[in-house]
User: What shape does this take?
Amino acid sequence: MSNTNASQKRTLKEANIIDAAEKVFSAVGYSNTKMEDIAKEAGVSKGTVYFYFDTKENLYMAVTYRALLLLNDSLYRSHAAHKSSFGLESVLALAETYLDFCAKYFFYSEVILDYMTLNRSTQLGKDRARMTDAIKESMYYRMIQDIQNLPVKLITGEISRGVEDGSIVNRQRPELLYLVAWGVVVGFVKLNVAAGSFRSTLHHVNTQEWRDYLITVLRSDLLSNR
Amino acid sequence: MSNTNASQKRTLKEANIIDAAEKVFSAVGYSNTKMEDIAKEAGVSKGTVYFYFDTKENLYMAVTYRALLLLNDSLYRSHAAHKSSFGLESVLALAETYLDFCAKYFFYSEVILDYMTLNRSTQLGKDRARMTDAIKESMYYRMIQDIQNLPVKLITGEISRGVEDGSIVNRQRPELLYLVAWGVVVGFVKLNVAAGSFRSTLHHVNTQEWRDYLITVLRSDLLSNR
Amino acid sequence: MSNTNASQKRTLKEANIIDAAEKVFSAVGYSNTKMEDIAKEAGVSKGTVYFYFDTKENLYMAVTYRALLLLNDSLYRSHAAHKSSFGLESVLALAETYLDFCAKYFFYSEVILDYMTLNRSTQLGKDRARMTDAIKESMYYRMIQDIQNLPVKLITGEISRGVEDGSIVNRQRPELLYLVAWGVVVGFVKLNVAAGSFRSTLHHVNTQEWRDYLITVLRSDLLSNR
Amino acid sequence: MSNTNASQKRTLKEANIIDAAEKVFSAVGYSNTKMEDIAKEAGVSKGTVYFYFDTKENLYMAVTYRALLLLNDSLYRSHAAHKSSFGLESVLALAETYLDFCAKYFFYSEVILDYMTLNRSTQLGKDRARMTDAIKESMYYRMIQDIQNLPVKLITGEISRGVEDGSIVNRQRPELLYLVAWGVVVGFVKLNVAAGSFRSTLHHVNTQEWRDYLITVLRSDLLSNR
DNA sequence: CATGAATGAGGCTTCATTCAT
DNA sequence: GATGAATGAAGCCTCATTCAT
Assistant: This one.
């Protein structure tokens, strides 16, 4: 019991620091973030931050892990809520969930994309890779690797179900359809940020309208007989 | 004449440095890049790099400018080549051009996205720092601002033409259609990098096939009567 | 009684910590040693270590004290065992004892030398820090000062006896003879470590042979009529 | 020419920094030495120190290298000066040279001993070694390894010559005789420092007298027919 | 007494930028 | 114009020590 309490306490303190890290990272960016600032924001000392996360990068990975966990959770809920719906509806719901997740937790969505880019660059043979050894040794990095595939699996699974139950007419492979859907969402997110630069030329478009339209596009893709 | 020669010489040397910068930035990311490395790669001294570009950020902006210039050029060519085609075909050709540009010059596409995100207060990937005053004062930053709107103008223009000439049936506003198309491309780019992480789950999909399918989707969007 | 028990318990726990400290200090050197490591090695918490030894330096002094105590004890036994022998034999026996002590407890011999060098303003090996006020206030430091002179007294005493009983012919002052003997031993110890570097050039020499030869040299020094 | 000048200049600046490092290291010890202090002492900035020596440990190795170089030089001169003397005299001269070197450059003698101890501890299989990777990668560390054997070679060589020319009667192997001689010197040096602690008991002995007596002992060792 | 989380001063090192030659 | 040595602010991280539980 007391063991459990201690563990809970630790988790709580860690969470407190991750909260702070999120705020600072998201406000000023990774490289502009000083560990000291995170400590201040968390109301603890620099040493305490290092007691829980032995590296700045490790702390960043912890943030990433949390982000991915939350995304997975959202997708899971959506998935569960549409067990009895047709596959098509479930897929579109997943897309909306993702879209909303990105809107609500914009920083998280960036962090996740960041991670995936990072992960990719390791797989190239470059010795001058973006990923440092510190990252690879991070506990959180390994934890992330265990859960990073869930979104893909969930979504492609529902697409397959939709194909089987006849709600999805499109005969392309689920992986391809998945990439289209996910890509549309990712593009939306990135553009949403970028669009700031083009307010002058694009000020007619309302974000909500845009989002809804994308769902329409996705739906008609799944329903087209290509 | 000798003045012109001098100017050409200067342009050449600058180009040489930008070449080197590109390589290093793309290999290890902005913050891991040292001016020294760029100088070495360019075969000049650090002092020379600073003679032509007074800041690391300014040099990065120069790379960005070149990227945008090349993209604009590609789009221009496509645009010109389809003057006499229907608007629909021109728009799709522009999308293909953009898609191919991103595939061929992946680093450029990242840099351009980076730039567009630059104005936002949120962080733009772990790797880039936030915009500083130094950036805003950069000559290249201003040069970019002069040409940044070209892609939007070109594409929305062609969409409008397609609507007028009847080749585009969709009645949504051109800006919205533009955002869909552009978003699809951006999503493709980002995912293309990220997808590396999921080779295990997504190994069935071939990039070329994916690209072609996206064009199909865009075409049917423009042809749908929503 | 219970008081005595408590005291014994305390002594036991202290000894346990000193054991651990010895291991770690000897393995990685003073400055590379972390209190945490000592605690772990002793199977207690860092707080406990600090309960018994309020400073890292104090703990080091405790190790030194133990080392000196053990050396004194060895020398005492040798001294006692040769009460009825000639002074010459007793002196040589003391030298052998010291030599064997250094061979057997190499770390102790280093620590003792370290301590003796401590008062000098010069640096004592890359690894040890200079004497701070904390050391001087250390209880162990004072305890050491009470017993540090025993080796000198014992050995010079036996030399004097040897001179008196005629077994030692050499007419130099006992202090000088002592310094020669002690210096030979110290040199042996330091070289024994260092010699590792020269295994290639010195691989013919066997440590035991070397030791025995040194005793021969000392004997003939004491027997020479200089 | 100008190339040579540049190289000379560099050597000069390095020497200046090593000078400063020596002073500070010797005054307060390795771990109490701050790079900043060395910089100040050298009259340059911290960055400059790092420009020439990329690590504190590397700088320490540079000091060690210089110390060994100077010792080697002294021994060489002595060796050359006694080319036509008997081997015995040459050996004793080498011992005196070493003795004087240690007296004159006490810090150097400590540094050299330090290095040899360091070098030994690497050869043990411990993963918790005293030597860090930084040291092993140091250019100076490798340079030292090239010259560290000179003293042994020189002295054992002269002993052999002495045996051949009949001036050395002792029939023990040169390596053993070398160890005795060198050990006596090392012991002298260490005790000379340590003796400070025992001024009360040993104040009768004068250093010069001690030194001379040691030479006598060594001479009679080499002349004894063991 | 024991624990181990918390502290924060301190030091090494990096690197964009400057500047004398 | 080019060079590369010099600068020094800035930041990550370590670890002896303290202290609440």
About this structure: Residues 2-28 of chain A form the longest helix (27 residues). Chains A and C do not touch (no CB pair under 8 Å). Confidence is low (pLDDT under 50) at residues 122-128 of chain A. Residues 10, 13, 44-48, 51 of chain A lie near DNA strand E (CB under 10 Å from a C1').
